[in-house]
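I had to read the description of the data format several times before I understood it. For illustration, here is how one protein appears when written out as sequence plus structure tokens:
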Amino acid sequence: MTTTTNTTASAQQSTPVPHHFILTIQTDDGRMVTQDGTIPVVPGVHTRMQTYTTLREQVGEHWGLTRFTVLFFALEPNQL
């Protein structure tokens, strides 16, 4: 019985949970861009900092930027 519970808990921990994010950045030339979407996060595996860093890199790549300032960041589970 304990093994089943532990296996179930492990399976739940490795299941990604969709999180909604909003990230607003400002470029060196003053442009501001807000991007939002969802990202799969595995509770107990991914940290908020890891997720922020991943999203920051993705937004930079998307806009072709290497330098920018993050003005706003929000991350919440997507389920209401």
